[in-house]
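FW: tagging you since you asked about this chain on Friday. Here's the raw sequence from the shared folder, copied in full. Didn't touch anything.
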Amino acid sequence: MTALDLSSPVAVVGTGTMGQGIAQVALVAGHPVRLYDAVPGRAREAAAAIGARLDRLVEKERLTAADRDAARARLRPAGGLADLADCALVVEAVLERLDVKQELFRELEDVVADDCLLATNTSSLSVTAVGGVLRHPGRFVGLHFFNPAPLMPLVEVVSGFATDPAAATRAHDTARTWGKTPVASADTPGFIVNRIARPFYAEALAVYESRGADPATIDAVLRESGGFRMGAFELTDLIGQDVNESVTHSVWQSLFQDVRFTPSLAQRRLVESGRLGRKSGRGWYAYPEGAGAAGRPEPHTAAPADPPPYVVLHGDLGPAVGLVALIREAGIEVRAQDGDGDGRLGLPGGGELRPADGRTCAELGDAVQFDLALDYRAAARVALAASEDVSPRTLAEATGLFQALGKKVSVIGDVPGMIVARTVARIIDLAFDAVARGVAGREDVDTAMRLGVNYPLGPFEWSRRLGGRWACSVLDNLHAGDPSGRYARSLALHRHAAASDKREGNAP
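HL: got it, structure written out here
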């Protein structure tokens, strides 16, 4: 363990919400902490605010009064950068502008000792570029905390092009002694979380822009079927539409306008209108004072329909195989049909019910598709998609079937990949691509996505559950309908699928 000794002073430069949060984390861990802000009086105000939060922790019995008093004694506002000369670590949390950060670190390098670790909390700028102005860039790392820093467990430890491995290890071990879960990331646009999370927002926006469903319905399906803690629209309202769009645009530009990361015009218009989310009182949803979630529109939920007396099982339903037991438990007969082919359920009226696979219903005849669920038994809602040519009886039988299983049903437009399936397939693909490009290891990617954005499963956990070819198949079908490159599978996912075929004896 090469973590900083708790007697070593830690400085935080920039005393906004994130700076205060990082300072509180280091302080509660046991370090003496220096606070500095270029605006006169801000550091003293921040120290008072941190003290008030420590008081609340005592009230909630999460901190003893003695520990609070000791922490307060270790906290000191700094009148200038010279007051940080004895610090062993300086974490910067100032304005997200490259020139501002570079100038700060130039000044810091003239003040602190040669063995002082320097860190930036940037979420969108290149760690390499920020540290590139230093005479000794080897001691420079990214320490990307997530907001609110005292509560969120994840810290991305980002190594720039010139970062010394020993410096990254020290930063990693120090974050762990602070009670955080550090993950190692290369200096790539978005690092781990903000790179791999882009499809969660992008695919929801794409479904909305294609008039597949309204925001409330998309959010409900992501939560109640996909198992995500929040839907994409409510989450971006919480983050701030301007902040979320800025990160998306930054990643897209930094990756040379890679079509897989293209920003949304609908979100751009929302930002231009000043509807920034909760902080402005209106985003995708309205936030009248005191109304909270109660002021939001209800998701589309289908009216009750009669269940079919039986279904005919054809082939293997893959990730949806658990539905067979649920259907039988609901008292609906399942008639097994010999033969392989695409997994599907035949309905009494002659139509079919199929898992979402990236194709449109219009390509499948009289067929309704149902979306992916994290756990079909636990899911409270399931989305169905139908084309204009699907018979009313087929849609009614499909709706009644899932209602008989205790699920709410949301019928959406005929969008390929529906909502959850296309989102998860793209997240899995970007995760494989990131690992292949040396951004991070598989375990760190899964940890980052579970802890950084509260995904129910990490991308590689999802891939193992869904099967080696599942994401490939969904993306291939999506790409056939939209050959722009947005849904083109990565070489890394292609290799994974090929290896899975060989293991399962399905190689062509």
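FW: The mean pLDDT is 95.
HL: agreed, and Residues 223 and 230 are 6 Å apart (CA to CA).
FW: great, closing this out.
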